[in-house]
Specification:
- This is SnoaL-like domain-containing protein.
- The N and C termini lie far apart (46 Å).
- With 142 residues, the chain is α+β, with helices and mostly antiparallel strands.
- It has a six-stranded mixed beta sheet.
- The chain has a single domain, classed as Nuclear Transport Factor 2, Chain: A.
- Strand 3 and strand 4 form a beta hairpin.
- It contains four helices and six strands; from the N terminus they run ααββαββαββ.
Length: 142
């Protein structure tokens, strides 16, 4: 594992701990001023900029205070020069939600770039699988 990969892995793991602890300063650390995030809840066009990103977290922290988990289950990192990405599966839910759907995982993708010699998150994408049509085969119309 390269030094860059270790640095990025540590950055992402530290961010996940901050999310779980409701530590807003820790969540914002190592994020670009012009971050773009596509999240599970609206707005559908995502949020742009560190100030808009900051505003998304208090409602999540309030939900998480109900005893929800936010724990990285698996994490892969790929580095190429001054850009990198990581993707992870995260156990994210209240005890009741996780008991009802123990297999459900939040899917997390992070795009990073090197700025002034350090890695920063420039893009974040969170999603859950769409299980609304579970049990039915998706068939494309001819």
């Amino acid at each position: 594992m390269s030094d860059d990969e270790k640095q990025i892995r540590t950055l992402i793991e530290r961010w996940a701990v901050a999310v779980h602890q409701g530590d807003l300063d820790g969540v914002l650390a190592d994020h670009a001023e012009d971050i773009v995030m596509f999240d599970v809840p609206p707005p559908y066009e995502g949020v742009r900029g560190i100030d808009a990103y900051r505003e998304t977290w208090p409602p999540f922290f309030a939900w998480q205070a109900q005893g929800a988990s936010f724990e990285i289950e698996s994490l892969d990192v790929t580095v190429g020069g001054d850009v990198a990405f990581g993707y992870a599966l995260v156990r994210c839910g209240t005890p009741r939600e996780l008991a009802a759907r123990p297999e459900n995982r939040l899917r997390l993708t992070l795009g990073l770039r090197r700025e002034q010699g350090r890695w920063v998150v420039a893009h974040e994408h969170h999603s859950f699988p769409d299980v609304s049509g579970e049990g039915t085969a998706a068939v494309a119309e001819p």
